[in-house]
Write a structure and sequence with these properties.
Helices cover 32% and strands 17% of the residues. The chain has 448 residues and is of the alpha/beta class. It starts with 12 loop residues before the first strand and ends with a helix.
Length: 448
C-alpha cells in the first residue's frame, strides 16, 4: 500500500519478524506500540531514535486491552523486529509548493487519486530516498532533523538564488535554502542535492552559482545532480517551459564537464553529475563507470545506462549457459533508450545465437511524445504499439522493465495490469529488474 493511502495513524503493528526480539517477547500482529521509555512515538523517526539505545522499556497494548511493559536489552541501534501498518506511523506531509516544473501538476485527469499526492516529507527522504524541498517544514521540524542527526537526506535545491527559488517554487519560504543547508552542514548531516533544470531559468550562470554554493558544503553535500524538466501535453494554464534539445543539452554538458574538471582538481570529486537523458539528447556517450564515483544519484537517472551496460558485459563474460531452443522476445522501452537497448540486444544475441531480440520503443501518447523515459510508459500504449509490430505474432514473450510498474505491484500508471497486457496480446510478459543479471537471467530461465 502506498504511504499516502494510510489514514490510520496509530502505531499498529502489521507483522513481527521471525526469530526477532519482538517475537521472542510475544509481540503479535495487531498489537499497538504505546511508548518507548515513557515517550510518545509520534512517527517512525521518533521510533528509530528512541529505540536506538541498548536498553529500552517498551509499552505494548494487546488486542484485549492489556498493557505489557517489556524491558529489552539489545545491541545499540538493533531493531526489535516489528513492522507497522503505516511505515511512517503518521500521515505523509503534503507539498504546498506550486513549482513551475512540477510533474504532478501536468498529469491528465481521472488517474488513480494516489498519483496526485505530492509529498514533501523529510522522513520519506531519510527512509526511502525521496527528494524534499525543505519549504514545507516549520523551524521546529528543521531543528528536529538537526537534533536527531537524520542522515543522509536528499534535497531538491534547483537554485540557491533566494529570489529565483521563491519564483520557481511559488513559496515564500523557499529563499532560505542555503541557510538551512549550512545548518545541516555544521552538524555533519550528509546531503545529496537535485537540480531540475528549466531552460533559460535556472541554467547558465545561475547554475554555476548554485554549484559554487553547494560545493562549499562538500563533503557533507556529497553530490549534486542536474536533470531536465519533464513536460507533458497537459500544461494548459501552467508556466510555458521549454524543453532540452540537442544544442541545449550539448551546452549543458560542456558546463557540467568544465565544473567537474575544476572540482576534481580542487576537491578530488566530480561532485556534479548529469542525467543520462542529456547525453542521449546530445548524442554523446555516457561517461565511464569510474566517472560516476559509486553512483550516488542512481535513482535520479544518473548513470543508469553505464551501470546497466557494465553489468551486461560482466554477465556475458562470465556466463557459460546455452539456450536449448530458439526464442524471440520483444523488449519494451521508452524512446529515449531505443538505440541503447538495441546495442545491448546485439551484445546478448552475439552471445546466445538462438536468441532473437526485437526492441520496441513505446511512444508516449498518454503523456505526450516529449516524455521519453521507460518509467512513464503506460499499459495501453504498450498494448497498442506491440500489436502494430510487423513480426508481433512471432514473439515468444514480451520483456518489460520493473520501472514501468507501480512499486511492489504489477500495474502501469494507467491502471492496466500485467495480466491485462497478457490477455490483450496473448503473449507472456516477463518483468526484468533494472540490472544486467536479472535481464539476462530472464532468457536463460525461460528457456529451460
Amino acid at each position: 500500500m502506498e504511504l499516502n493511502n494510510y489514514e490510520e495513524i496509530r502505531n499498529i503493528i502489521e507483522s513481527v519478524e521471525k526469530d526477532s526480539i519482538a517475537e521472542e517477547l510475544g509481540v503479535e500482529k495487531g498489537d499497538i506500540l504505546v511508548d518507548i521509555d515513557g515517550q510518545e512515538v509520534k512517527d517512525v523517526i521518533d521510533y528509530k531514535f528512541f529505540m536506538s539505545d541498548d536498553f529500552v522499556t517498551v509499552t505494548i497494548e494487546k488486542s484485549n486491552g492489556e498493557l505489557w511493559e517489556l524491558e529489552i536489552e539489545k545491541e545499540y541501534h538493533e531493531d526489535i523486529g516489528i513492522v507497522f501498518t503505516n511505515p511512517l506511523i503518521d500521515k505523509a506531509k503534503r507539498c504546498q509548493n506550486k513549482c513551475i516544473f512540477c510533474f504532478i501538476d501536468q498529469l491528465p485527469k481521472n488517474m488513480r487519486h494516489t498519483l496526485y499526492f505530492k509529498d514533501d516529507d523529510s522522513r520519506l527522504s531519510f527512509l526511502q530516498g525521496n527528494f524534499i524541498t525543505l519549504t514545507n517544514m516549520s523551524d521546529d521540524e528543521i531543528d528536529r532533523i538537526i537534533r536527531y542527526r537524520l542522515s543522509p537526506i536528499n534535497i531538491s535545491v534547483h537554485t540557491t538564488d533566494p529570489e529565483l527559488r521563491v519564483k520557481m517554487m511559488k513559496n515564500k519560504r523557499a529563499g532560505r535554502i542555503i541557510e538551512i543547508l549550512r545548518r545541516f552542514n555544521e552538524v555533519g548531516i550528509e546531503m545529496n542535492c537535485q537540480i531540475v533544470l528549466v531552460p533559460g531559468i535556472n541554467d547558465g550562470e545561475n547554475l554555476n552559482r548554485t554549484l559554487r554554493d553547494l560545493i562549499e558544503l562538500y563533503p557533507n553535500v556529497v553530490s549534486a545532480a542536474v536533470v531536465p524538466i519533464g513536460v507533458t501535453k497537459y500544461r494548459e494554464g501552467l508556466f510555458e517551459a521549454e524543453t532540452y534539445d540537442y544544442n541545449k543539452s550539448l551546452e549543458l554538458l560542456d558546463q557540467v564537464h568544465e565544473f567537474q574538471r575544476d572540482s576534481l582538481s580542487e576537491k578530488n570529486t566530480r561532485f556534479i553529475f548529469a542525467a543520462d537523458e542529456f547525453y542521449v539528447l546530445a548524442n554523446k556517450e555516457v561517461p565511464n563507470y569510474e566517472a560516476y564515483e559509486g553512483f550516488p544519484q542512481l535513482e535520479n537517472g544518473i548513470g543508469l545506462m553505464r551501470k546497466f551496460l557494465m553489468e551486461i558485459e560482466e554477465v556475458l563474460d562470465n556466463n557459460k549457459a546455452s539456450l536449448k531452443n530458439r526464442k524471440k522476445y520483444g523488449i519494451a522501452t521508452g524512446t529515449l533508450a531505443n538505440d541503447f537497448m538495441n546495442d545491448i540486444s546485439s551484445m546478448i544475441m552475439n552471445k546466445f545465437n538462438k536468441l532473437d531480440l526485437k526492441v520496441v520503443p513505446i511512444k508516449n501518447t498518454y503523456f505526450g511524445e516529449t516524455i521519453t523515459v521507460s518509467g512513464l510508459v503506460t499499459g495501453n500504449d504498450l498494448i497498442r504499439q506491440f500489436k502494430e509490430c510487423e513480426d508481433f505474432e512471432e514473439l515468444d514473450g514480451i520483456i518489460i522493465p520493473r520501472a514501468m510498474l507501480k512499486a511492489n505491484d504489477e500495474i502501469f500508471l494507467d491502471d492496466v495490469t500485467v495480466r491485462d497486457v497478457e490477455e490483450k496480446l496473448q503473449k507472456k510478459v516477463l518483468i526484468s529488474e533494472v540490472d544486467g543479471k536479472s535481464f539476462i537471467d530472464i532468457f536463460i530461465k525461460d528457456n529451460k
